[in-house]
Amino acid sequence: MEHGAFGDQSNATFSLTEEDHTLANAVRCTLNQDPRVTFCGYSIPHPSDARVNIRVQTTGDPAREVLKDSCQELMLMCRHVRSTFAKAVDDFRTSEKVQAMKIDSKE
Amino acid sequence: MRLILLHSYIKTLNPEFIHSHLFTKNSVILTEAKQLGMAEREETEKKKEAESFSIWDLPDVPQKLPPHIEFQRTRVQCNLDAPIHTENVMYSGAYASMGVDNSLQLDHFCNNFRVEVIRLTKDDMEFDLIGIDAAIANAFRRILIAELPTMAIEKVLIANNTSVIQDEVLAHRLGLIPIIVDPRLFEYMSENDTSNEKNTIVFKLHVLCERGGPRLTVKTNELKWLPNGSELPLETKPDSNPSSKPRTYTSFSSSQDLLPEFSNNPIRPMLDITIARLGPGQEIELEAHAVKGIGKTHAKWSPVATAWYRMLPEIVLLEDVEDEDAEKLVKTCPVNVFDIEDIGSGKKRATVARPRACTLCRECLRCGEEWEKRVSIRRVKDHFIFTIESTGALSPETLFTEAVKILEDKCERVITELS
What we know:
Subcellular location (chain B): Nucleus
CATH architecture of the largest domain in chain B: 2-Layer Sandwich
Number of strands of chain B: 16
Strand order of the largest sheet of chain A: 1-2-4-3
Family (chain B): Belongs to the archaeal Rpo3/eukaryotic RPB3 RNA polymerase subunit family.
CATH class of the largest domain in chain B: Alpha Beta
Strand content of chain A: 15-25%
Distance between the termini of chain B: 30 Å
Radius of gyration of chain B: 35 Å
GO molecular function, one term (chain B): protein dimerization activity
CATH superfamily of chain A: RNA polymerase, RBP11-like subunit
Strand content of chain B: 25-35%
CATH architecture of chain A: 2-Layer Sandwich
CATH class of chain A: Alpha Beta
CATH topology of the largest domain in chain B: Gyrase A, domain 2
Region (Disordered) (chain B): 229-263
Largest sheet of chain B: 6 strands, antiparallel
Keywords (chain B): DNA-directed RNA polymerase, Nucleus, Transcription
CATH topology of chain A: Gyrase A, domain 2
Largest interface: A-B, 44 and 44 residues
Distance between the termini of chain A: 67 Å
Largest sheet of chain A: 4 strands, antiparallel
Number of helices of chain B: 12
Oligomer: heterodimer
């Protein structure tokens, strides 16, 4: 849900349901590192509501697009983390195997 | 952006003007030359030089942050009283006045991000995440603890319980037992769903302690998996069709052990966990129904015993610590971070041998006032030592991969919602 984006597209608050600090803080971090963003922050209005408000103010671009880009960025980062992690685990397994073989050959 | 603008601005100016301003020494010589009457030729040479001049060659154009600010940006300094520079600078324009861009570039992240596996066993894993923001590392941790699904006992149908442990306490204990099964093979059960083979796992527990015998410890090994579903009949009206199979608390259409995933690998709870102790003559008979859920609802569904991270410790000896001082330093550290090396002629010097072991106790800084000037304890802000302890349902590396996938799904949900 998007609030306060009727007149000026560059300032808006987005209200995400069923989300918490997990996503909001990660998105805030990518949003803040976007040069188009002048201000960004999030709040959880009430701890018993599963809802988080993300405020985005930009230099002129529509806040909606900027938030979308940030999510996209975060998603691509996650994808990279996943592939790097899988590779690191594989490397670790093979190096472990090689070490085990070396120990065997010594005995 | 700022630099490029400046560059074009200079180009539009009179080259002579820039020349005389930027190379004051030269311009002095040149004015002298002018006075001597060699003006014409010198002038053209000077113009040529000015045209080939680039602002990028100037030494005072900042390429990176000054060292003290770079230090504040990348390290937490752990002083004796309190840590400083603990904040993370995220704003893209934070260093614009110094001509340094702090914005996030995906290719930059991809080139610098690294993962190093330190330890990997069946249910325990330690690895380093290098070059990632705390916010994202924390998202992974939160998802691991609270948003990854597992199977856990949710309903307990107690037929008989004469033990000293109350029904509700027993049911709670059963709920906390980890169930060794891949939760991805099951579906969530919503409120109106009936229990079927896709969303429920049924276990039976029937133990009796013989009269005259010793007391009996009931372990999770006694929980028997019922692949055909519940065996307890539902109370039905007497006029219903007596020839039909009696209805039970679950309605399985097929047996779970026919599935290829479970045929050779029967579902079992984590073994050797004590459920209750029975005195002679006491008996427990019950049926436990496990369903899929997430740790946010109840901690019993959390797939990790715990998942945590810490920032990489960095310890620097600001000056050489020698002889008695070195021995004193090695002795004070309770986790043996420091070592002594021989530097010849009978002299000894302290070295930092195992910085990862540092627990931030700061015992070394408490030796005396001068030690705060000798030892500097820091944390690297973008280097996380991540540890995952799995409860057994999934291997720790699968858990992390699944956690990252969940964060991706969350992003995707927002994107689709916005477009």
